[in-house]
Design goal:
By secondary structure, the protein is an alpha+beta fold. It has 8 helices and 17 strands. Strand 14 and strand 15 form a beta hairpin. The relative contact order is 0.15.
């Protein structure tokens, strides 16, 4: 039964491993012409050019109208610059309704035709995994309830992405294209006063890493990355093969009611050697806005239970990835083996945890991840 539930969960998974559709009353009802998203390419009159994304309907949630605790801590006038940065990062923890919105806004090749926009939303809790003086780790966990007629189905729990923040970090693990990551050492002067953000996939494999400075304004705090290469997200990886890298900027902004992640991405074509193609390397520009709005009254207890049960296992997974990164100046990952992506055996093992010792977990993790490491 557990395996059936897991397989169902993996089928539901998409770009963010959760995809609630827009409410029925928001759907296009008179095609062509009607639009419900920004920068909507009004000259395109094709029926069906509407946002793709979720295929299920989530239950209603209540937004929290009050400034959240993380925001209030951030406003303390006695904070040092360093501690204010830390509090901005910690303010991203908590319960959220999260909306994902992506749209191609500019085409750079003749005859360019924009792809359908992407929209979905979900409910997730962001846990503080570690909080050391100069290092903070945040784990996102999705908890899903689905509305099927008059019946509510759930909860279904899905480990989502992770973000690690480190102060004045010089040794970064950057994406080099073609499923390859490499270590890069930055000058000490260049990273002075900055925070590096490392983003990891649902299986804790690396995704991208960059650095930037926090700026604190009276009614928001914001951090922006350097220009960064990133692999295709799942929302694109499963449907696109005409480009290989997202090159862009990533911004996190802390607000009284939550936070917002903004992306400005350039879709870049690479050769087999991992360099931009000589002819028309840039395909399109994409804007993304992911809003994390604080909610109250939502039952995240299933996420709490999952994280309590599996956190030791995922700690072993994190340690194995850290070891791989330390031992290799660069490494490559396989997309899948016999049709199975890496997160699948890891998720299944996490679901079936009983009384395995750390040594047993480590043996399984090393063996499993090792199969996906390229030559």
């Amino acid at each position: 039964m557990k395996k059936i539930c897991l397989l169902l969960l993996l089928q539901i998974a998409s770009s963010h491993l959760l995809a609630y559709e827009n409410n029925a009353e928001e759907k296009i009802v008179d095609c062509p012409g009607a639009r419900f998203y920004t920068f909507s390419w009004p000259t395109i009159k094709e029926c069906g050019f509407v946002p793709r994304g979720g295929t299920s309907t989530g239950t209603d949630v209540s937004l929290d109208p009050m400034p959240h605790e993380g925001w209030l801590k951030l406003q303390d006038p006695k904070l040092s610059a360093f501690e204010r940065d830390r509090q901005a990062i910690l303010a991203m923890a908590g319960p959220y309704k999260t909306t994902f919105d992506f749209l191609e806004t500019v085409g750079y090749v003749p005859g360019f035709k924009p792809d359908k926009p992407y929209q979905s939303w979900g409910t997730e809790y962001v846990y503080v995994v570690e909080d050391k003086k100069d290092f903070i780790s945040l784990q996102h966990i999705m908890v899903m309830f689905f509305q099927q007629g008059d019946e509510v189905v759930g909860p279904m729990v899905m480990k989502h992405w992770r973000q690690d923040w480190q102060y004045q970090k010089r040794d970064l693990l950057v994406y080099a294209g073609n499923n390859t990551w490499k270590r890069e050492t930055l000058p000490r002067k260049e990273v002075a006063g900055t925070w590096a953000q490392a983003v990891y996939q649902v299986d804790d494999s690396p995704r991208y890493e960059s650095y930037g400075r926090w700026e604190h304004k009276p009614n928001f705090s914001t951090w922006q990355s350097q220009l960064t290469w990133r692999p295709l997200p799942r929302r694109e990886h499963t449907v696109r093969n005409d480009y290989q890298v997202l090159e862009g900027y990533n911004r996190h902004t802390i607000l009284p009611d939550g936070w917002v992640q903004e992306e400005e991405n350039y879709k870049l074509k690479l050769t087999e050697k991992g360099v931009p193609t000589a002819d028309k390397p840039y395909l399109a520009k994409e804007l993304g806005v992911n809003r994390y709005q604080k909610i109250n009254g939502f039952d995240f207890s299933a996420g709490d239970a999952y994280w309590q049960k599996t956190s030791e296992f995922w700690r072993v997974v994190r340690e194995e990835w850290a070891s791989i990164s330390r031992k290799n100046k660069s490494f490559q990952l396989l997309d899948e083996i016999e049709g199975e992506q890496l997160f699948m055996p890891l998720f299944e093992y996490a679901e079936q945890l009983a009384d395995q010792s750390p040594e047993q977990m480590r043996e399984f993790v090393q063996k499993t991840i090792g199969r996906y490491l390229g030559n």
